[in-house]
Predict the 3D structure of the following.
Amino acid sequence: MTKQTKIAADTTTDNIEYVPLAELFLSDLNPRQEVEQDGIELLAQSLVACGLIQNLAGLRDQSGKVAIVAGGRRFRALQIASVERPDLSLVPVRMA
């Protein structure tokens, strides 16, 4: 079993930051390290058609980049979809 760490989140406010896609990376804490590429491409098509419905969740590291801990599939799909819809390259992330 993997070592788990508690992440404290501020629940009193919506701590949402809009982060450029280029400043995001997949965290080792994200449970979806391996995914089916076909599913990611379908999700990217959905993002192009409907936009992002559910925010990603992440942690800021020492360099200022944001590690995505929840929303790994959406993160991968956003990388594809933002080519067709550049407005998707500014991503709302719930910060912990």
